[in-house]
# Entry
Amino acid sequence: QVQVVESGGGLVQAGGSLRVSCAASGTIFRINAMGWYRQFPGKERELVARIFSGGSADYADSVKGRFTISRDNARNTGYLQMDSLKPEDTAVYYCYVNVPVTWGSRREVDYWGQGTQVTVSS
# Structure
């Protein structure tokens, strides 16, 4: 079992910055990918950014140039640096990690955190 815990959300003024963290723990053989989704009230979760084991990353168009995702493989931890925040970035941010089911398995499973609120005031 894998546990995922986000931290670092909060309230910030428009134009400001926040960094949210995502720590994975438990029986982890390898983290294939980790990333962040966000959810607006009444909406489906949408991908914000994800980073793969080799270090490549992709971003939603709405955050390109403002958000940066990174990971520390030794600590099974990921980070989302959010700069130039806008009120429309206000949402609950969820971290996920994609891991193999067992050592050497090609089957994968996603584990999710409980979410952290990010609020950007105008």
